[in-house]
Amino acid sequence: MLGGAQPVAFLAITDVERAKAFYGDVLGLRLISDDPFALVFDLAGVSLRLQKLREFLPHSFTSLGWQVDDATAVIVALRARGVEFERYGFIEQDADGLWTAPGGTRVAWFKDPDGNLLSLTQHAAG
């Protein structure tokens, strides 16, 4: 029924200007609209609606992620723009903050200004 329908991604934010700068300037997403209810960014052809809330308690799990070809290069570029990557004591991560899953997929996590947990994933070759 919905297999062919265009998806929409949702996250919550509390500081509109801070979110606009992070998603637009830091992550490089194109702002589509800013209305009283949400900021909407183009997420590779999918709408990302950042819902404007007075208060918000972020999830402890990943809310949104990107599949990338070279996670290390993206991490270096994002760090140059001020993004800090998460470190976890319960998994082994390399100097860039990348965890390598048993199958070779590499993942790193970072947070937006409201604490939404975001990720980068580089799938194993082959």
From TrEMBL:
Residues 4-123 form the VOC domain. Gene3D superfamilies: 2,3-Dihydroxybiphenyl 1,2-Dioxygenase, domain 1. It comes from the Bacteria. InterPro entries: Glyas_Bleomycin-R_OHBP_Dase, Glyas_Fos-R_dOase_dom, VOC_core. Coiled coil: none annotated. This is VOC family protein. It comes from Gemmatimonas groenlandica.
